[in-house]
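User: Hey, quick favor. My workstation is busy. Could you predict this chain's structure for me?
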Amino acid sequence: MRLISPRLAGCLRTRLGTCLGTLGLAVGLAAGCHGEPPPVAPGEPIAAPAEISLGTMDAECGALIAAFARFKDCPNLDEDDRADIDAWSERAQQDFAAGKKANPEVNAQRAIAGACRKAVASVTAADQRCHAGPKPKD
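Assistant: No problem, here it is.
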């Protein structure tokens, strides 16, 4: 009397052979590897960006107010956009007045001037986009 059918025995023999063959391949590959590859050589150092010569806090933040005024004159803006720009400009003026009143230290004034410079760049880019044509319809 057979304990296992010939069909099942053939299936087990095939699967066992495949498993042993895969295991043998894996062991062979692992034995052929000799550790980690050598590290990649470092590239050339990246130079630091040039120091930006900022103006005073008053000058840089005044330039932001002027940038808002130029942006408001764009012919492709609607009245809601102009009202938003007026609100941003008024808020900026209030914040600058409060900043002057607080008389921040030199490093803080430099940080505020840098933030105003970045904001001027953003408003100028928005003004250029506005002059390129009307905004798309939704």
